[in-house]
Design brief:
Blueprint: H1 9-19, H2 21-27, E1 29-33, H3 35-43, E2 50-54, H4 59-70, E3 74-78, E4 95-100, H5 106-116, E5 119-123, H6 129-141, E6 146-149, H7 159-164, E7 174-176, H8 180-189, E8 194-197, E9 203-204, E10 214-218, H9 227-233, E11 236-238, H10 250-267, H11 270-273
Parallel strand pairs: 2-3, 5-6, 5-10, 6-7, 8-10, 8-11, 9-11
Antiparallel strand pairs: 1-4, 2-4
């Protein structure tokens, strides 16, 4: 078959998936840019539905395309130069793939947190793609049960988030469009304590010991969590800091919380898990 041109229907759809959040969610698909993300997808057992590779691609990219084809992906050759103008990477590698977009349910993440006694990250209107990608990367690396994104949070499957997550979007369960306070209420009803993260005035992180799974709530880069939200949650935690730094970037704060929760999890014995956590303030019925 001849190589696909820029006007081809499949290439136009690929362009829409890269550029529009609504197109990704309507189609239930998102784009992996470059050989590293595609190879990582294959190593995780997530076979892309379709792979697009430039007709003049080098042997390293052809090898990735062949591996995808062996895993069941449909591979299309694209005319030279067509893919270069689609992706957002500074130095484009002319291979892209379309993978299924599968959000997790809040119920599944809560069940995972309770069963595995692990932490959850709740994000309230985090807008920067780099921050969200870094948070997902830290969540997966620390063994988090999942990341829950409010409706105002940046799309977890946008190209910039996918790249900055270094493939973690394929590995950590992500819940999308869940209201912050309803999510907090659901977690608390399931026995998962929820802590609002604040710059100062909260319980120091090294003193937080929920005795089991825990959820950390982090807010927007510019103004953090709304005071009303903090008041309703009823608990807050602060990362102790020294020096003249006023606050931490939200991705840095989330990373510290993730790895501290992971450290606490690894240090526990079975007798520790039998301790009852302190009673939580339950929101809603």
């Amino acid at each position: 078959m001849p190589a696909l041109a820029a006007s081809n229907r499949r290439v136009r759809e690929l362009r829409r998936l890269l550029g529009r959040r609504s197109a990704r969610h309507d189609a239930g698909r998102f784009v992996l840019e470059g050989p590293t993300l595609i190879a990582d997808s294959l190593s995780r057992g997530v076979s892309p539905e379709t792979v697009f590779v430039a007709d003049d691609a080098g042997p390293d990219l052809a090898e990735v395309a062949d591996a995808a084809a062996a895993a069941g992906s449909q591979v299309h050759r694209v005319a030279p130069g067509v893919l270069d103008g689609l992706g957002e990477v500074v130095t484009p590698r002319p291979i892209l793939a379309v993978a299924p977009l599968v959000p997790a349910s809040l119920e599944a993440v809560i069940a995972r947190a309770v069963e595995r006694r692990r932490h959850v990250i709740l994000l309230d209107e985090v807008r920067d793609p780099g921050n969200l990608g870094t948070i997902m990367r830290a969540a997966e690396a620390s063994g988090a049960a999942g990341v829950v994104c409010s409706p105002g949070t940046v799309d977890p499957w946008s190209p910039k988030v996918v790249r900055s997550s270094a493939g973690a979007v394929l590995g950590v369960p992500v819940v999308l469009g869940e209201g912050t306070l309803p999510a907090v209420a659901s977690l608390q009803r399931a026995g998962v304590p929820t802590w609002a993260t604040v710059v100062d005035g909260g319980t120091p992180l090294d003193e937080v010991d929920p005795g089991g799974p825990v959820a950390f709530l982090l807010g927007n880069e510019a103004h953090g969590l709304e005071p009303d939200t903090i008041a309703v949650v009823g608990r807050s935690v602060t990362i102790p800091m020294e020096g003249r730094v006023e606050s931490l970037n939200v991705a840095m704060a989330a990373t510290i919380l993730c790895f501290e929760a992971g450290r606490r999890h690894r240090s526990r014995t079975e007798s520790d898990w039998t301790r009852e956590p302190p009673p939580d303030k339950v929101i809603g019925p």
